[in-house]
Design a protein that fits this description.
Layout (H helix, E strand, L loop, with lengths): L14 H4 L13 H19 L25 H13 L19 H13 L10 H17 L7 E5 L2 H15 L9 E5 L4 H9 L7 E4 L9 H14 L3 E7 L11 H11 L3 E5 L23 E4 L12 E5 L3 H7 L28 H35 L4 E5 L4 E6 L4 H17 L8 E2 L2 E2 L1 E4 L7 H12 L15
Parallel strand pairs: 2-3, 2-4, 4-5, 5-6
Antiparallel strand pairs: 1-7, 6-7, 8-9, 9-12, 10-11
Helix pairs in contact: 2-3, 4-11, 6-7, 6-10, 8-9, 11-13
Bound molecules: pyridoxal-5'-phosphate (PLP).
Pyridoxal-5'-phosphate binds next to α6.
Amino acid sequence: MVGCDRPSLATAPPAQWAFPPLPFATADPRDSELQLLLEQASQRLVRWLGSAASRPPLPGLSLMPAVEPQRQGLTASQLLSDLDLVMDGAYNPGHPGALAHLDPPPLAASIVGDLICAGLNNNLLAEELSPSLSRLERSLMAWLAERLGLPPGSGGVPASGGTLSNLMALVTARRQRQLGCCGDAVVLASADAHVSIGKSLAVMGLPPGALQPVPVLADGGMDPEALERRLADLARRGVPVIAVVATAGTTVRGAVDPLPALADICGRHGVWLHVDGAIGAVFGLSDRHRHRVPGLERADSLTVNPQKLLGITKTSSLLLLARPQGLERAFATGLPYMEPSWGGGHGGECGIQGSRPAEVLKLWLGLRQLGLEGIESLLDAAVSRREHLQALLAAIPGLALQSGPLHLLAFSPAAATAPQAEAWSQQTRQQLLDAQLMLSRPRYGGRFHLKAVLGNPHTGAAELERLAAIVATTVDGLGQPIPAPSA
Ligand SMILES: Cc1ncc(COP(=O)(O)O)c(C=O)c1O
């Protein structure tokens, strides 16, 4: 073939393979472009976080950058100035008056965890795509389960949010109880359970009536006697029960269901107990605060959302199980395009998600940066803020407060009708926003309330005192709203 004029198979790559260079991180350890981009982006982020107090918690409408890629790719500085526009319009959780939701500012190490997670770009789907991270994830899940009191051998899986953790818990419970074909199976949860329980049942193909609400007592916790009666009635009628869902930290007031009593009842009736601890389970990590969520350790499955209070960047939710083997029974399909697991099991076989990022990294770094003492002081401060605000608001005649043992507090004028409470909540939220204090406006017990979530580490006594002073001008001593003075 030598001397033949047919083209050689070993041709040089076509020009478009070599040029223009694409903006991937390169194999050059001194990749100066990547370094510069990371440094400039970090500087912007540090500036944004550090100037949180000078911007309102809820920004006004901001300019939007172009969304479509242009013919020529943008330079680093063009990208960063577009990024500025988006950052200008972002919700500002680091403002000391950001008290509306369960979305605290991020821990420093957790931000780094997210960055490194993106750079490693590993995939928790399978061990060969995330060798060290799969092991880290399993070990951390087992440590967390044990720390929260679940039995030896417990463990679990991270999920992108508490909704997904709750869904996976209920799918696992249904599978465990072999109720997959029972269209009449039900789940019992308190009337104050999170909306993700109903959503989960809809995704599972069950009719709306499958969610059976159990009434709550005056403290916002599920009524155990009502649960017992309901379970006995369902048993008499032969209606299968997938699970009882208890809540450790309800969304509006942070109430905790009486878990030990509910666990006893579930034990007597042979029913799976799922605890939605998306808000409250993290209190079980601390010796000083565990008493706020007694009985977590009795759960068959437990949702925990470190993103809601501990400052782990979103998303960070976990589903922990006393017997984690149930996850594989519910979700494993086999991964015929992957090497077999070398012992621990593939991350994609123990949950709904296939490809998923190493969210464990920011959780692990964040928890280790805080340390057990840091976790404890964060929880101490959140509870103290709630107690301080509660004392200030309790001194306002005519205001009805709803709270629990955690860091949430809701309130409304005691004697307002539902339409009056709605108007009051709108007007008062706006007055508070004008003073750079952001509360949320949930509907609870048939009427609107204002709700404060006191997990923001930057909130001090001054913000709470200003808040109470404004609220005091909006309610008369008889519990009627006082209309705002017209502007
Ligand atoms: C008690 C409770 N469970 C579950 C969820 C859902 O969590 P996520 O928003 O992470 O899906 C929430 C959200 O606020 C919640 O309050």
